[in-house]
DNA sequence: TACAGTAATGTAAACCATTACATTATTAAC
DNA sequence: GTTAATAATGTAATGGTTTACATTACTGTA
């Protein structure tokens, strides 16, 4: 494998000059530049990132922590991150934690060992204590899920308001018996969305009914089905479901269909996220659109900024209610 | 940031000894080992992958080339790859090419620049000439889609046979007018699946009808919808659809539902891949299950083997017909 | 006690590029 | 033609490991 010394020798210059040509510095005379470029072509030389990275003490790799790659919610975010990263000569390492602390730690080690320059964490179940500790030495951003008092910069949406709007929409089209299919109260977004749900009900004088609030362990399709089974078993069945994730909503949809009831005539359903699939179901799903791509680009910009040593501010992005066939 | 010299100094030994402790070599006396371990703990030392990688001329990163991260077909494969990779101390760089040669080239550069130790290509639209050239110098495996004469090792399934079985199933439950919703004939899997389709028809004395064979540009949901629209417009409508991808099939399903027809009573539908979502549709989708996770693990094992300098053989995995509500 | 043989440790080069600083070449001005 | 100023190039250290080879410390035996 050719290295920079061999190029220098072939071109009859010093390695410093070759390096300068490589990095596009303008202190090289065009005569020598051409000599060097010829030598590079001749020898088929490709500069080694290994040497460069060591010298520059950087890996040019960004870590993306997600709980599960199967949740399409993250896909658009990742695309956003990737585009910004690539444009700045960074690459991304996608890390699926399965919300498993051990796996998480393997990935944290990558940044400790200089294999990664920073982290964008999207895992709601991340070990926040470790993350805080890590954030003292390394560049870290939280995306979507965050912790207010951690001091770690984040980009997210206003979950409380989004949830409020979804529920208000259901109320406005005449529903009074509205169930909330929530995830796990450990997560901030879950608590915030529940608050929005409560606020909408209160504002319209609808009393809270605890039978109508369900929690699921995970945001998977099957969990939506299970939760919906419980709801269908209630003696006083709700006429509308607000699920905090499209996957849950799609599970609910499936279960309602299976029970012979009709959406939206018998039960209306609202989801959250506007994943691609929410448009492929029958009926299509009313949902809250998160600006996922944008969230990704912002997160990546924040992280790269932080890596460069700048201070970055938190960002709250706008959401949108998308009304489709399920309501 | 502490380095190995500082640890050596603190422990009162040489860097070689520290390195030996780090790499678990057994030529270190337990007395010194303890000294070194104490120093490591004291100084909070973490070995730098940058130095190590340079010295070892490796990056411990594997490149995964996929056309689109949005196609769930790849997700399980990726999980398989990742598990094997992690267990062998490799990390994976997920690269979405969008079947765009420029983007592809950015990623190829990573291996040229030693930023990656090898490639698993899953992109049917990959530039095979470049890939072949690259394969002479670097370790490369093709997964799912492959090229017979490229000399690049691959892991895949028997597409012709799988397709044959899917169509035969449709024939056995009484269908004679069976449409094939194919992708692009440029791709080997596409040609192979068409051959399986033809063989099944021939074997049962059903004449080929070219109106029943459609091609789509991409494997997306919308392309399935569009193709289905065309099919529904035929004066002699088929009674069954075999789509070469679940996403296409789901698009078809949606379109059939929208037109007021019933699946499977009016039109039966078979997909391909058994992605998670194929079980969430209404009705659930009959499909060919590819052993995606297994395919991933095998691909990763092959690649790591190749990186180690061993020769590897091609692998053909088994598929399975999963009969569900849509037929 | 001396010596061979083995176990433990150390020295220094290698991996490859970048860059502060030093040196040499060139240009401009008088 | 000299000198000063600037442009172009070179030298050598640096980043952090690993490891072949060299050296030293130990063990057991005669």
From TrEMBL, chains A, B:
PROSITE patterns: HTH_CROC1 (PS50943), HTH_LACI_2 (PS50932). Gene3D superfamilies: 3.40.50.2300, lambda repressor-like DNA-binding domains. GO terms for molecular function: DNA binding. Pfam families: LacI, Peripla_BP_1. SMART domains: HTH_LACI (SM00354). It comes from the Bacteria. Residues 2-56 form the HTH lacI-type domain. Keywords: DNA-binding, Transcription, Transcription regulation. The keyword Membrane does not apply. InterPro entries: Cro/C1-type_HTH (IPR001387), HTH_LacI (IPR000843), Lambda_DNA-bd_dom_sf (IPR010982), Peripla_BP/Lac1_sug-bd_dom (IPR001761), Peripla_BP_I (IPR028082). Residues 5-50 form the HTH cro/C1-type domain. PANTHER family: HTH-TYPE TRANSCRIPTIONAL REGULATOR GALS, LACI-RELATED TRANSCRIPTIONAL REPRESSOR. This is LacI family DNA-binding transcriptional regulator. It comes from Psychrobacillus mangrovi.
